[in-house]
Every structure is written in C-alpha cells, then in structure tokens.
TrEMBL record:
Superkingdom, taxonomy of origin: Bacteria
Top EC group: transferase
Alphabetically ordered keywords of this record: Methyltransferase, Transferase
EC number assigned by the record: 2.1.1.171
CDD domains referenced in this protein's UniProt entry, alphabetically: AdoMet_MTases
Taxonomic classification: Bacteria, Bacillati, Bacillota, Clostridia, Lachnospirales
InterPro entries: DNA_methylase_N6_adenine_CS, RNA_MeTrfase_RsmD, SAM-dependent_MTases_sf
Protein name: 16S rRNA (Guanine(966)-N(2))-methyltransferase RsmD
Native species: Blautia ammoniilytica
GO terms of molecular function: 16S rRNA (guanine(966)-N(2))-methyltransferase activity
C-alpha cells in the first residue's frame, strides 16, 4: 500500500498486521480521490475508523490543511503514528486513540469538517450510529461531504429521516463508497 499522489507520492505505508482491518486497495483509493479531488485542497479532513491512516494521509498528501485520525486499536494507532512520521505529514495530523463516538463528542464545538470519511467494520451498523450522531453535530455543516465505505449489501434508506441526502454511490467488486451531505432546508 502506498500514497498515490501529492507531497508523499509513492511512499509505502505500513499496514496493521492481522485481519482486524481491511486496507482500501490502491486502485479503489485512487478512484475515490479522483472523485474527491476538488474537495481536498485546504480542507479539514476527518478519517474515522482509520486503520493504517492511509485515507487521511492521502488527503494530507494531496493538500488537505489538517486531518484528524480516529482509531481505537492500539496496533493501528502505532501504525498511523509511524505512517505520519514516515511521510513527514505528522504536523498536519492529529490522532485520537479512542472509540469513534467518544472522539466525535470530544471534537464537538470545534470547527466543522469539510470531508468526513469512515470505513467501519462491516455488518455492525456502525455507519448508521455515526451518521445518527453527525445529524445534529456541529462537526457537519451544509458543505460537509461524508463518504462511507461499506459492503455492497449495506442499506442507506434511513438517510432521509436523519436529514441527509445521498449524492451518489460508487460500487466496486466487494464494497462501495456512498457520498452523503446534509439536505438543504
């Protein structure tokens, strides 16, 4: 796994040993960031369920102003620290080693994020829990783009009732990216 583009281009990233995380493949990451490219320069990026930190690091490499990484697995946190240090992007990143909902509560009251990416463990409805929290959070404004990586079977039919709209979905062989924003009033 490597950084695809930007300041840290071609640098290899460490991954978390074992099967607890599913690193996003380089091909899917490249497709994702091609779609996100207009949003990334100077943005505030939130990477939830960060794993190795590859998505947030890609955002920083491509010009995001700041990224917050949220991960509770201690081995993954060590991996994120190493990857931030190796890519020389540590000054632009902040790691919160805690549960995602706990981290969101700790960030409440600060600036909203431009992009929020989450890749929660599949089939545990964690994306729905996080979106339910974000529906009334100061971390999301009318310009925030939320991207959820989920398995192909994950249903997002509840978005409307939470005040969100699905902008689009990009499907791959085994998973998909769903692009979400707050509905306009």
């Amino acid at each position: 796994m490597r950084v695809i583009a930007g300041k840290a281009r071609r640098l290899n990233l460490k991954t978390v040993p074992g099967m607890e995380t599913r690193p996003t493949t380089d091909r899917i990451k490249e497709t994702l960031f091609n779609m996100l490219q207009p949003e990334i320069p100077d943005c505030r990026f939130l990477d939830l369920f960060s794993g190795s930190g590859a998505i947030g690091i890609e955002a920083l490499s491509r010009g995001a102003a700041f990224a917050v990484f949220v991960e509770k697995n201690p081995k993954a946190c060590a991996c994120i620290r190493e990857n931030l240090s190796f890519t020389k992007l540590a000054d632009s990143g902040k790691l919160l080693s805690m549960d995602v909902l706990q981290a969101l509560r700790s960030l409440e009251g600060g600036e909203s994020f431009d992009c929020i990416f989450m890749d929660p463990p599949y089939r545990q409805d964690l994306e729905q829990q996080v979106l339910a929290y974000l529906a009334d959070s100061s971390l999301v404004d009318e310009h925030t783009l939320i991207i959820v990586e989920a398995d192909l079977d994950t249903d997002f039919d509840y978005l409307d009732s939470m005040g969100f709209a699905q902008l689009r979905s990009k499907e791959y062989k085994t998973n998909k990216h769903v692009f979400i924003t707050r509905k306009e009033n």
